[in-house]
Amino acid sequence: MNRLRTPAREWLRALGDVESPAGRLVCFPFSGGSAAAYRAWTSSMPVDTQLLAVQYPGHADRFAEEPAGSVAEIGAHVAAELLRLGPEPCALFGHSLGALVAYETARALQENGRPPACLFVSGAPAPWQAGGGTTHLAGDEELWSAVRDLGGIDPELADDAEIRDLLLPVMRSDIALNETYRPAPDPEPLRCRVRGYYNTGDPLVDGARIGAWAAVGAGPFSVRSWPGGHFRFLSDPAELIGDIAGMLSESEVPG
Predict the structure, then answer these.
(1) Residue 5 pLDDT grade (very low, low, confident, very high; cuts 50, 70, 90)
(2) 36-75 burial by CB neighbour count: b if 16+ within 10 A, else e?
(3) Catalytic one among 95, 173, 230, 251?
């Protein structure tokens, strides 16, 4: 059944009530995730930092919209919306699919003269190592099992047939975005700090693949890891949030 076509909503959701921020942190969801995945981060942000999260089309309050056609398309839309906000410094965080979208957003911002202050990437290989795979072509049972085994589905919901039927199309389109992603050839290096995160028990990404993100930028690069699987940050985000907040407090906007 075709989804109803409705006017597109804005891409950014404000989490918290910081009205006159000194800076912003923009968070990008993983495959199947929504802006609400970052709501719990609000209380841990520096008091003058506005927390924003991206809502992809086809998700949550944008459920009736057609999914995006590419990662770069999402990045261009988000960058355009950020450019309409004030000139306060902006940092970007993305996990898994969200890391690639954050990267494309960073590129679009820089092309428009407003590079981010920081790019935080988690649980994703570097752009030229990303893409590939056929999971999005798998049958429903195989696809659901693959996501469930990674820890991307609440165990209490994993056996709910109605939830599965609701979420599967969204997950499939997101995984397709990830697996068909191809970065632009010879992109300009990012003029911002880049920090990579990975979990030592993640079957999809290891230290070497996160370390390859160093080549996307001309500025400082660093990596931090913790024990756990691909979705550890959902169940135990305190250390990750603390690290990001610490980085935000010492970051400056690149020239």
Answers:
(1) very low
(2) ebbeebeeebbeebbbbbbbbbbbbebeebebbeebbebb
(3) 230
pTM for this structure? 0.91
Torsion of CA 154, 66, 27, 138, to 10 degrees: 50
Domain 12-250: CATH class, spelled out: alpha beta
Residue 69 DSSP code:
S
- Return the percentage of the chain with pLDDT > 70, whole number: 93
At 253, list the tokens: 């906007």
Contact 52, 27 (CB under 8 A): yes
* 96 in catalytic set: yes
Catalytic residue among 31, 96, 122, 173: 96
How buried is residue 163: exposed, middle or buried, by Cβ count under 10 Å (0-12/13-18/19+)?
A: middle
Residue 230 falls in the annotated catalytic set: yes
Mean pLDDT across 130-139: 81
pLDDT-derived band at 79 (thresholds 50, 70, 90) equals: very high
Q: CA-to-CA distance for 233 and 225, rounded, in angstroms?
A: 11
Angle among Cα 232, 192, 15 to the nearest 5 degrees reads 50
Residue type, 44: S
Q: What angle do CA 245, 198, 135 make, to 5 degrees?
A: 125
